Amino acid sequence: MRKTLLIAATLGLTTALLATARDNVTPAPTTAPTTAPTTAPTPEEVVSCVSYGLGLNFGREVSGSMKQFDVKLDMDKIREGLQDGIGGSNPRFTDQELIAAFQAFNTTLAAKESEKQIATGKAFLDANKTVAGVKTTASGLQYQIVEEGKGPMPKASDMVKVNYTGTFVDGTKFDSSVDRGEPAEFPLDKVIKGWTEAFQLFKVGTKAKLFIPSDLAYGPDGRPPVIPPNATLIFDVELLEIVAPTTEPAAAPAPTQQP
Which of 84, 141, 184, 257 is 20 to 30 A from 41 (CA-CA)? Predict the structure, then answer.
């Protein structure tokens, strides 16, 4: 198990290093250089550079992940782990101890991420409710009409057809029926609470923005691996039509494509 993980990590870091190197290569000059080429590195120099690069890339990857959670790792233990793994020494912790520690660590990081999402979402919604045209319902749902439709308004029991694009409060897109080129169809009472409430306020043809608090979206469970726990979500939506009922119940929408 440890051997497999070490090989996978090494290959991953090597691939990342090569990709980084390719991205930073200086284009070859169109004319021959006026100075003599530098001496090719010795095998020892190559190994030294690769060794350093592996450590550097590992440090960058870990540092980037840990900084967002305000976690400081023990550098001495990282060095010990590298030395024992590369040197083939007996591990200082059993597999069971390592698994338990990583599980506890992941639980701590998940709690930190959840707290971060709650604070970020609250700050965004508090500011957003003062924006011109944004309305806030009793549940905390916020919406803004972009273009008013002229058709009928659906009920919770209706099947609707919708185009949407979903983003987080930082603008990162996580889903879009528009990008797929295929509107979504779903029973209005089978989706997240924010959608069920919002679309009953709109006439067919309406285009709007939805700002959905986490408790009206996916709550503390989130929707791994895409949506973190307690995330506030933003949707650009267009209510295309109320779908006429069929003689047979419609299939449930694909979970990866519907809120």
Answer: 84
Are 238 and 164 a contacting pair, CB within 8 Å? yes
pLDDT surpassing 90 at residue 28: no
**pLDDT tens track for 127-165:** 999 999 999 999 999 999 999 999 999 999 999 999 999
In SS3 terms, 106-169 reads as HHHHHHHHHHHHHHHHHHHHHHHCCCCCEEECCCCCEEEEEECCCCCCCCCCCEEEEEEEEEEC
Say whether 143 is catalytic: no
Lookup: tokens for 67: 């900084």
Active site annotation includes 174: yes
Token pair 């295929």 in the structure block, residue: 182
The answer to whether the peptide bond before residue 225 is cis (omega within 30 degrees of 0) is yes
Start-end of H helices in the chain: 2-23, 43-67, 75-87, 95-128, 177-180, 193-199
- To the question of pTM greater than 0.85 for the whole model, the response is no
Told to judge if 218 belongs to the known catalytic residues of this protein, a careful annotator would answer yes
Express each pLDDT in 205-257 by its tens digit. 999 999 999 999 999 999 988 999 999 999 999 999 999 876 555 444 434 44
Do residues 177 and 162 lie in contact, with contact meaning Cβ atoms separated by under 8 Å?
Answer: yes
Of 192, 212, 234, 242, the active-site residue reads 192
